[in-house]
C-alpha cells in the first residue's frame, strides 16, 4: 500500500483526493490494500477515506458490529464528514448497515459487496488447523473464484494473524457477533440508495444473500460480477469500479 496511514486522536486512516466523500470499510480479515485499485480509480474526483476498524484494539467484552458502528460515528464526527457514501465489503458492509440504520442522516448512499448482515458461511467457531499453512491457504483461496487471487503475501498475512492468539480470539468474537446480528427486520428503515455489487460465485455470502438484500432494501439495485467470489473489488476491480462509478454518477446528479 503506497498511502501513508494517518494517526490522530486515536484514529488510524488513509485519505486521498477531494470532493464528495467515499468511506471504504474493510472486512474482518481485510487489508487496506484490498481497496487500492478503488482508491486509484476515484481519488482524482472524490475524497476517499479508509478508516482502520479497531478490531484488535477495542475491549474484547464490547467487541461487535455495534461497537464498530459507534467507532465509525465518532470518526465521521471527528473528521466533520457528512452525507458520505459508505462502501463496505464483508464485515465492513455489515458495519455500514448498522451505522446507516442508526444515523441515516450521515449517509448519502450505501454500496455493499459480499456484505454480512443476513447470512455468511464464515469460520464457524474456530480455526481447527491454524498452525497448518496449507489449511490457511485453502481457507483464503475459498474467498475467491480464482484461487490465484490469494497471493502468497495475502496468505502470509492471514497466517500470521490467525497464529496470534490475541488476534484470533478477537476475530472469532467478531465473527460470532456478525452472525448473531441478523438485520433482516431492520433493512426496510434504510431508504437511501443502495448498490449491491456481488460476486456470482461468492461462497461466503452466496448469491441468494444478495437477492435477499435486494428484496429487503427498498431503494436498492443489484449488480452481478461473473466468475467472482467474495471480494469483487480485488478479483475484478475494473468491473467493480465501473458499477460504482455508474451508481455514483446517478445518485450525485439528483
Please describe what this structure looks like:
With 254 residues, this protein is an alpha/beta fold. Helices cover 39% and strands 17% of the residues. It is built from nine helices and eight strands. Strands 1-2-4-3-5-6-7-8 form an eight-stranded mixed sheet, with helices on both faces. Helix 1 crosses helix 9 and helix 2 (65-78) crosses helix 3. The longest helix is centred in the last third of the chain and has 16 residues, at 165-180. The radius of gyration is 17 Å and the shape is globular. The N and C termini lie far apart (34 Å).
* Proportion of residues in β-strands: 15-25%
Largest sheet, in brief, is: 8 strands, mixed
Number of E strands: 8
Radius of gyration: 17 Å
Give start-end ranges of low-pLDDT stretches. none
Helix content: 25-40%
- Alpha-carbon distance between the two ends: 34 Å
Helix count from the secondary structure assignment: 9
Backbone shape:
globular
Write out the strand line-up for the largest beta sheet, numbering strands in chain order: 1-2-4-3-5-6-7-8
Quaternary form:
single chain
Helix-strand pattern: EEEHEHEHEHHHEHEHH
What structural class should be given to the helix and strand makeup? alpha/beta
Task: Return the average pLDDT rounded to an integer.
Answer: 92
Amino acid at each position: 500500500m503506497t498511502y501513508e496511514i494517518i494517526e490522530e486522536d486515536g484514529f488510524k486512516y488513509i485519505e486521498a483526493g477531494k470532493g464528495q466523500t467515499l468511506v471504504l470499510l474493510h472486512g474482518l480479515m481485510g487489508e487496506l490494500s484490498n481497496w487500492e485499485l478503488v482508491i486509484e480509480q476515484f481519488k482524482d474526483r472524490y475524497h476517499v477515506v479508509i478508516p482502520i476498524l479497531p478490531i484488535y484494539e477495542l475491549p474484547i467484552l464490547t467487541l461487535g458490529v455495534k461497537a464498530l458502528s459507534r467507532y465509525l460515528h465518532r470518526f465521521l464526527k471527528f473528521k466533520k464528514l457528512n452525507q458520505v457514501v459508505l462502501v463496505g465489503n464483508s464485515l465492513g458492509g455489515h458495519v455500514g448497515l448498522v451505522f446507516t440504520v442508526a444515523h441515516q442522516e450521515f449517509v448519502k448512499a450505501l454500496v455493499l459487496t459480499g456484505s454480512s448482515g443476513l447470512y455468511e458461511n464464515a469460520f464457524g467457531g474456530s480455526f481447527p488447523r491454524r498452525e497448518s499453512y496449507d489449511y490457511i491457504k485453502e481457507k483464503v483461496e475459498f474467498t475467491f473464484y480464482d484461487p490465484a487471487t490469494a497471493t502468497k503475501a495475502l496468505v502470509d498475512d492471514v497466517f500470521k494473524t490467525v497464529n496470534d492468539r490475541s488476534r484470533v480470539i478477537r476475530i472469532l468474537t467478531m465473527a460470532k457477533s456478525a452472525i448473531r446480528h441478523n438485520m433482516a427486520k431492520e433493512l426496510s428503515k434504510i431508504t437511501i440508495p443502495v448498490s449491491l455489487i456481488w460476486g456470482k460465485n461468492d461462497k461466503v455470502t452466496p448469491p441468494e444473500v444478495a437477492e435477499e438484500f435486494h428484496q429487503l432494501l427498498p431503494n436498492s439495485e443489484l449488480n452481478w460480477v461473473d466468475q467472482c467470489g467474495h471480494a469483487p473489488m480485488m478479483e475484478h476491480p475494473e468491473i467493480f469500479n465501473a458499477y460504482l462509478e455508474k451508481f455514483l454518477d446517478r445518485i450525485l446528479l439528483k
